[in-house]
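In this section we walk through a basic example: taking a raw amino acid sequence and producing a predicted 3D structure, encoded as discrete structure tokens. The instruction is simple. Fold the sequence below.
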Amino acid sequence: MNMTKTAILSMGMSICFLLCNPKPAWAQDQGTAPLTEAASQLLVGAPTNYQNLTIYPITLAELNDPSRYISQDKAMAKNMIRITEQGSASVPTLKLTNKSKNKIFIMTGEIITGAKQDRMSAQDILLGPHKKNIAMKVYCVESGRWVHQSRQFAAGGTAGTKKLRMSATNKASQSEIWSNVAEKSRDSDVRSSTGTMQAVYQDPKIRKKIAAYQQAFSKLPQNTKNMVGFITVIKGQISSADVFANPKLMSDLWKKLMKAAAVDAVTSKEASQNNPSLEVAQQFLKDGLSGTFKPIDNPGLGREYLVEGQNGITGSSLVHQSNIIHLALFSPEKGDQPRELRPDLRNRNRIPSQQEASDNRSQGR
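The resulting token sequence is shown next.
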């Protein structure tokens, strides 16, 4: 009889817990505290404008993380890391090794070149010291090549444009990534025999335009105290926001993110609007950080979260030792559906197999 009463009492307590705590366990994850707190700590400053691109700096009153993180490109330049194809080459996975004592940060959307085809990182990774043979998730951004150019990858010096980075963050299919590369190539009037995204950045007329944008914004980081990120606005519409652990890490990623923003700006087909007020820009951050944070698998240090903000804002963040290493927020594209409604995102980690990738290449996709 006592056992029955105990069982009934236990069941009642369980039902009460579920009713009183309707959010799933990951919604109460204490590791998300830095993200919820960031909404009130991050400050949006006065914008700088050039043609149809506007940048709003994001600052912190007090810096919380003075740690030294090495960016992917700097690590490659100093031979600190090695990224290669796996033994049996696979489109969506590479092999990553940190040969140094440093923590190395790889941002979602960074492009690496060489090996059997150019790739783009599929998630943020904070690689711990001396870590070997880590499985690195990637996307192909060169659909027409599957032959070795080099034994290991080199830094591309570029990152995916907004739509590419957002698709990677949302764990889109490989086919969607190829479609985005093809679309940006058409919009840029650039053709490549292998369909590589790098061709857009290397095109002489595009490079000239990028250089003008970079020059216009070149002094913004050094002239803005405690700048840890920025909001990108194109033709008056908020495109994205990026926030980093500290000004040093932000400055290391600044150049390639500005290149991507410039390409989006020169190829934009949207109608121009007035730039948003500081209040609207600040609200974008608050909306992005007012939703839910769902943890996902990550091979490096810290914990990575998919961000589901208000008003269709999506993104991701990597948090390590109570500090935001990187936060990326993206405004919705026209016609976007929420993640849970999109059939191509229901299996979040699915990337086509090597055979599927080969089939797509043979069909010119």
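Looking at the output, two observations stand out. The chain has one domain: 31-347. The longest strand covers residues 81-90. In the next section we compare this with other chains.
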